[in-house]
Amino acid sequence: MTQHAFSVISLMKLMWLGSPTLPVGGFSYSEGMEMAVEQGLVHDEASALEWLLDQMHLNQARGDWSLLAQAVEVWQHFDQDQTRQTITELNSWVLMTRESSEFRQQTLQMGRSLLTWLNANDRAQDPRVVLCNGFEEPTWPLIYALALAMSTTDLSLAVASHAFGWAENMVQTAMKTIPLGQLSGQRLLNAMLVEIPQAVEFAIQLPEKDRQVFTPGLAILSAQHEDQYSRLFRS
Q1: Which terminal residue of the chain has fewer beta carbons within 10 Å of its beta carbon, N or C?
Q2: Domain for residue 165, yes or no?
Q3: What is the pLDDT of residues 19-34, one digit of tens each?
Q4: The domain containing residue 95 runs over which residues?
Q5: H, E, C per residue of 170-212
Q6: Greater confidence, 20 or 16?
Q7: CA 79 → CA 85, 86, 128, 171, distances in Å?
Q8: Does the residue 74 lie in any domain?
């Protein structure tokens, strides 16, 4: 196989992982946006963009995307005992940062679904998948990091793939809940794409000691969503 063919296959694998058709149920979560729309915090294209960019830079880049970058490298340099210890610690960190039952449910459900997908795609014998199969509560960022590590050696592209999948899913959420038209959705996605490289670079370079998830307003919205009268999404 030529280097060019290898690069094309790697790119297609990243596109596959970033696709909303990946059978992990990401489309069923709004990550607090549905309640934000209910309360009038998000009500049009401009407010949706502000909401999503804030969530990207203040939450995702400082938290999950930074952890994802570290986890990809841990999976790429697999050592049975050391990797188990580090991944277990990172997995526990993810669980501790889920401040509502809905956020916790999301990371566990999507993590288990992606692990099932890996097992079904000729990955069941990979020692890294075997290790994850032994986890009682495998979380979405750690399993996604494993899938990325199996697909590319380019860390920036790996994290950007995850970021694009998140952005596309959140734009679709905005279109359904506000609601917005197709052109508004495309403008939102384009505006987010401009910001993603900066957010990804920040996440990769962020020291582990500075990684954080501190979005109390979002956590409150998520908790309130649990008994929202009428809803489309699971979070």
Answers
A1: N
A2: yes
A3: 878 899 989 999 999 9
A4: 39-225
A5: HHHHHHHHCCCCHHHHHHHHHHHHHHHHHHHHHHHHCCHHHCC
A6: 16
A7: 10, 10, 9, 38
A8: yes
